[in-house]
Amino acid sequence: MSTPAIEIEDLTVAYGERPALWDIDLKVPTGVMMGLIGPNGAGKSTLIKTVMGLIKPAAGTVRIFGKPLSETGSRVAYVPQRSSVDWDFPATVMDVALMGCFGRLGWLGRPKSIDRQTAREALARVGISNLATRPVHQLSGGQQQRVFLARALVQKAELYLLDEPFQGVDAATESLILDLLRTIRSEGGTVVVVHHDLQTVADRFDQAALLKVKLLASGPVDEVMTPELLQKAYGSSGAGLVTSRDGHP
Length: 249
Prior knowledge:
Elements: E1 6-15, E2 18-28, E3 33-37, H1 44-51, E4 59-64, H2 69-72, E5 76-79, H3 93-98, H4 102-105, H5 113-125, H6 141-155, E6 159-163, H7 171-186, E7 190-194, H8 201-204, E8 207-212, E9 214-220, H9 221-224, H10 227-234
Parallel strand pairs: 3-7, 3-8, 5-6, 6-7
Antiparallel strand pairs: 1-2, 1-4, 8-9
Helix pairs in contact: 5-6
């Protein structure tokens, strides 16, 4: 049995006296696309940030490919919520894409020609080669999201963690992101996405984890997206939110 991409045991995270996550046990197999779902305040973004080491847990452990993040950080790429980023910083599209090299170069290392070529290829994959010299604060929301994806591609990670990547983007960007994530999975990568649109979970992901501070269920989408579990997470409206892969309840 292969080592999970992510293995979380007994994880509890609290903001002051309020638990944001409580006693979470979760394994994410390698080579899957998993959607993290749950109502507002369920702890989805908190879980991603804790895996990335951005939030310190009150208890529990997180292992990436069987090791602590301190030993595997270069194998993990993180795409935060676009709304959480201060886009006024003075950087071009190419500058941000090249930030994906810093894990290899260190913060004081200077990108080499091969790094710039990798960045150009990543920008081409997300369809914004023509914007390489544009300041990021001048971009649309969809274009900004593409820049962050390019940065993740430059990193050449094995595990990709994305926080609401489809939120507030145009249809073309949404389709591009989905195709790109599926390509990453087909190449052996693992993708975990914080996602709020329950109607598209079955079409976009092969695995899901349902959170409401506690982990209610995880595994294949069909086993997680049941009326009973969704009602437990979302209340009386939850049972009506299930959509099968062919688009019918």
